[in-house]
Every structure is written in C-alpha cells, then in structure tokens.
Amino acid sequence: MTLAASDTGNLFLALAALAGLLILQSVITARDPWGPLNRRFLLGLRVMAILFAGRALLILTGVEFFRLFVLLGAALIPISVLLLAEGLLRRHAPRWAKTYVAAGTVFFAVLSFWWSDSIDPIRLVGLLAFQTSGLLIGGWLVLMRDRTCLTTAESQTAERLALSLILLIPLAAADFLMLYLRLPAQISPLGVLFLCWLAVSLGRSQAQHRAPVVSFLAIVLGAGLSGVVIAQMTDMGRDATILTLAVILAALLVAVLFIEAQTLRSEEQSQTLLRHLAQDRSRDALGFLRGLQSHPLVEGAALIEAPQLADLDAAVLRRIFEVRPVLRRADPPFKDGTEGDHISHLFGLFDASHILLADDAPLTLVALSMPALATSPRAELELAAVQRMARLMSRASR
C-alpha cells in the first residue's frame, strides 16, 4: 500500500509522538510508577498514546473503527489535565470546573463510539471548544495557584505544565482546523513532544526554565534551517516544505528525548563518589578510606600515613592543607618556596593527580590519580565532599 505524502507525514508524526510518550513513561516508571502524582501523569500520557495510536492505525489500515480511539483520546485529555493540575497544586479545582469537564468528558466520550464522520463537523467543532477550554482551565489553575503551599520543585513542575500548554493548545486546535488552515499535516505531535521534553528535563538539576526552552528553540532553529535548505534544493511547494519541517523537527525531538532519558538513567546508575558517601557503612575514617580505594573512579587510591611523611616537615604540610584540603597537581596553592617544594615532592613521590587531607593528628593523606579527561567540575566537588567526610569522621573518632 502506497500512502500519499500527507498521510506519510501524519503517520510519522503520530509515531514520533508515541515514541516521545513512551520515553517519558519509561522515565517516570523507572522512578516511582505508584506515586500519587506519577499515576496521574501516567494516566495523561496513556490517554494521549491512545489518541496517537488510533491515528496511526487509521492511516495504516484505513479502517474507520480506529477513529474511535482518536475521538475517545481527545475527549479524555481535558479531564486528564485537570486531574494532573489538582495533583500538582495539592488542591481541588472549583466545583464549576469539575462539573464542566466531567460533563463534557462523558458527552464526547459517548459520541466517540459513533466513529462515522456523519455527525461531523458539528461534533469536531464542539470537541475543539471543549478540549481548548479544558486545557485553558488547567493552565488557569496553575497560574492562580497558591505559591506559599508548594515547594520550589512542585511549583517548577506546575510551571512546566503551563509552559507546555502555551504550545500544545494552538497546535491541538490546528489539528481540528487543518482543512480551514490548509495544513498538510496534523502538527499537535510537536506540542506533545515539547511537553515530553519539558517533563524529562525536570530530572536535571536546573533551577530555571530557561535551559530546556533555549535548547528546544535551538532544535527548532536547526530543524527549520535544515528544512528550508532541503526545500530550496528540491524546489518544494508550500505543503511539502511544511511536511519536511515538521518531520525533521519531530525526528530531532525524539532523538534528543531518547538521549536525555538515557543520560538520566546512566546518572542514576553511575558509580559516583556521592554514591560511595551515601552507601558506605564504615564506622571510622580508616574503613571509609579503604572503601574508597576500591571505587572505580579512584581505584588504587593510596593511603599515606605519618611514617611515610617522615622526610617532610609536618608543620609545612599542615599549613599547605589548611589553605587547600584537596590539592590538585594542575593547580597547586603554592608554587614557590618551601611549600611549593613540599607539594612538588608529594606529587612526584606518589605520582598522583590529587592529594586529600584525611586527618591531621596523626597526619594522614590520600593520594589518587584521575586522568585529565575523566576529571570534571562535578568530580572535583565530589572529591571535596569525600575529603570533608573523612576529616569529620577522623575528628569524631578521637
């Protein structure tokens, strides 16, 4: 079966939206699928998945029965958004909003079982008005929230929902008005992928919304420029250009979503020094440091005790480590004088990239070698945390 260009584009966009929803669902279920808020989020994702699965099956088979899933999914979206907004804000929506959304959901869900288009466009106009107003109610609840009752993380999540609706509402409306706007494809999948992008980026340590929005705009710009170049080279018409832009943008968003989800998963499973801090069960500094020696990032770390430092002036060493508890070969605190000579001797003697002060009575150091390419600002910060923990444990055991 050969599909028309618009059908091929719509099929690709529907499958891209499904892929984005599945990626986001995998991120949420990997953390806590049974959390009260996560259950509401997953409900919304599965409702949208029903819609796009129905759309893809309708295009592939041409069987009108699959319009049932498209119409049913569209009817359930407003109540899904309302339930999610209530969970995010930890408060009930006004009674009139609940009544309106519940009544509209029941009405259009029943109508969806009449999957023939014989009652369209009246049904589609009503569904457009209901879906748009339902999404606006969800956005209004977020904007009018009581910020004093929410934590920073909860408020940030609510703002991401409202931010996604800015793009999702007009793109969803464009699906209903596709013929009137003379669009060659239904472009709501792009809004859904934007929602997935914002939700997945919540797992990153970002206090502001600027980073994911700027990244999204960069992707849009890259896709737009690519599409325009292709359109110019092949002398495309208006419809083909719009289809090309939409397909390229959707493909890029799915790829970036997949990479972001994999990065989050690898971070959760990575053997960071912070994991050693959290999971170590040693009761003294010596046991803590011996456990550190087997850590993959600093494997082979050497524990340097006072007898090994007999040739060096202990007072000079204490002065050096008072200034910088974690010494780096690349950035020593002293380069000249007695202190500089002691630092050069330490790094040369133990062939280390970093030397940490573990205890000052008796003087105990840890020397470790980290390749320059494996060293990052986060690793440096983790080393400082490990050093501080070892020092505190040493003081507590005296």
UniProtKB/TrEMBL annotation:
Keywords: Membrane, Transmembrane, Transmembrane helix. It comes from the Bacteria. The chain crosses the membrane at residues 12-29, 41-60, 66-85, 97-116, 122-143, 163-181, 187-203, 215-234, 240-259. This is MASE1 domain-containing protein. It comes from Octadecabacter dasysiphoniae.
